[in-house]
Amino acid sequence: MKICVLVKQIPGSEATFNVTPDGRWIQESGLPFEMNESDIYALEEALQIREKMGEGEVFVVTLGPDRCQKTIREALAKGADRAIHIKEEAPFCTDPLTIASVFTQVIREENPELVLSGLQSDDLGFGQTGVLIGEMLGMTTATLVVATEIQDEDIRVKRELEAGWFQWQTMKLPASLAIQSGLNTPRYPSLRGIMTARKKEIKDVSFNDLRNVDFLQSFKKLSIQHAEKHTEMIEGSVDEIVSKLVNVFKNEIRIN
Asked: What pLDDT shows up at residue 222?
């Protein structure tokens, strides 16, 4: 089985953000970058499926600038067989339809039986890429996947629903799945994996050469949220102070 995994490099969760002077994008200088969390689980699930089947190929596809090589090498060190790097330079595209159309062109040439992506990216959080790719490729599609079982030409997936409910669904292959964080235990790169990753193929393609639709979405301006503390003095008699405090607890802090 040939499995495609989409991985994205995002700013680290502990990173301190600043925006460019024009307010169009975040300043990247000094930012730590890492692989998107749910993509880590998607990669691990692909590797486990290959291991259970005893054969197959796992390749990763990444969109971004040269700094994404670090994330690609991490995926290869964990066990992915090869990678495709869709190179893009700032200002970066944020339109899910455009991004999905570019990924689709690359994936269609590979003709995989399974496409795995993280449920959503931790930076933008649109959660649309995997679903759009599935539709564009004519694949059966599922989101919020927390378990998978390959059954001949089908795949059985467990989906997380609301209020603690789950749903098992059997789908025809090929399929595109958006993976939820926590469905497995991701592995760490081994020393052998790190060494062999240097010899694995990384194919470079240009985002601009693949782009064939107009941007339908973009950020007009970004701003950093600043937390401010405000102290309000409550004055009056004891009964008035108690009444005001109760009102604050019930209606503002919402303590029942």
From this structure: 73
What's the confidence (pLDDT) of residue 57? 97
Angle, helices 69-78 vs 37-53, to 10°: value is 30
Angle at 53 between CA 156 and CA 5, to 5 degrees: 70
Domain of residue 63 covers 2-210
What is the separation, in whole angstroms, between the first and last Cα of the chain? 55
- CATH classification at residue 103: 3.40.50.620
| Among candidate residues 161, 104, 162, the one with its CA nearest the CA of residue 137 | 104
State the pTM of this model.
Answer: 0.82
- Within 8 A by CB and 6+ apart from 48, the residues are 184
Give the pairing of strands 114-118 and 2-6: parallel
Nearest-angstrom CA–CA distance, 155 and 231: 57
Nearest CA-CA partner of 139 in 173, 170, 103, 111? 173
- Residue 195 inside a domain? The answer is yes
Model confidence over 84-93: pLDDT tens digits?
Answer: 999 998 778 8
